[in-house]
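question for whoever is on the cluster today: can someone run the full assembly for these? two chains, 462 residues total. i dont have access anymore since they changed the login thing
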Amino acid sequence: MKLSKMISVELQKAVVELDEGVLEKIREAYAIESAAAEASRGSRSSLAVLDAILNNLAQAKEQSLPMCQDTGMFLVFVDVGRACPLSLAEIEAEILEGCASAVEEAYFRRSVVIEPVFERINTQNNLPPVIWWNLVEGSGLKIQVLLKGFGSENCSSVRMLNPTGGEEAIINAVAEIVAAAGGKPCPPIFVGVGLGGSMDRAAYLSKRALLRDVRITHPEKQYAELEGKILARLQRLGIGSGGLGGMITALHVAIAYESTHIAGLPLAVSINCWADRKATIVWEGDDA
Amino acid sequence: MRELALPLSIEDIASLKAYDQVLLTGPLYVGRDQVHKRLFDLIHQGEPLPISLDGETIYYMGPSPAPEGKLIGACGPTTSARMDPFSPLLLDHGLKIMIGKGPRSREVALAIERNKAIYLQAFGGCGALYASTVRAVTTVAFPDLGPEALLRLEVERFPVIVAIDSLLGSVFTR
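^ ran it for u. tokens below:
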């Protein structure tokens, strides 16, 4: 299949259906709030929200409609093998064609404006996507796309922490950012935490963290444990589904880190709504 | 669960309390960021509004396009906080019922109390669910805004939770 077609098909699916890992997390939250519902008004309200979410997902599938009217902005992460036979220009053209085709075929909302301040004229096709290029070993190509809603993106944030702050500074900063977000980003949320690099690189890493399968923790034990500590702290905020209170505020926390400067500990938090929509396209040598 | 007709009567609004779950049936207006900015500017300039806000309902939403044979695409609520700078003036000009998602500013809460109005929360992200409640769609004003135009919808059994009631009972202050 042509690369643009593969991209289009996966995006059309991602706007209607969530992947199994994300569904598992929502069902787990449902079970936890159910168990607490008798004693807690917050959990009863959260349960009503989670019930609506599951009902909505069934409706989206049945009606072939986007699950949410904010079909997001295309954030595209391209891992290109150094020996990949496709040129970057060819890959870029396929990405643009694939995105534009999905917008038409799956009735995405036109949500992208040309410039941010003055006229804010709609581009009418959700292009351009935001594209990050990353060189990797091998001859293959992996394209991952986040359909990033902006109710949640407006709650994302960057902090430049003190390098001696350690775990505690990180846990506190993430909790402050999520507390400030409250019910705005459509909780229960998914949280990507980027650590290290520079200010902009931390922000990029926080998005890469969101791409990870939510059933998997960080491969390094210390970071996996830190993810667990952050998650536990976020649940104690009691924001709950829809911001109505309850046991579950976040469904998953994922960290991605890189090297950084001796004077710094950049931290970025990308917040995603429960509708954690993403697509992965792996190309291994068909005709583009 | 209570079922009520839109627009809500003064008595209905007074009887609703934070956390109440309600199914709404009837007409409502749809407007989000740019509609709010325009209505706000028109009021400030002393110009007539394209609609009467008196006793009315505004739902913060911008739908995805309607597939062929459907009335509307996904149509769940957008984040209400972005309307906070504009809502007090609209409430003071007759608006009674706001539907969106997430917390509101103190200024909006005070305007709710002053005008005996109400803020209802729809289920965030549930665009397909809300599409199934829509019975009619009309573009009323500002068609140049595309997905942000001012619409009139007829809805049937549209689910909401009372988020801030007319006496300032709130799901957001715990």
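summary bc i know u wont read the tokens: Chain A has a mean pLDDT of 96. Residues 90 and 288 of chain A are 8 Å apart (CA to CA).
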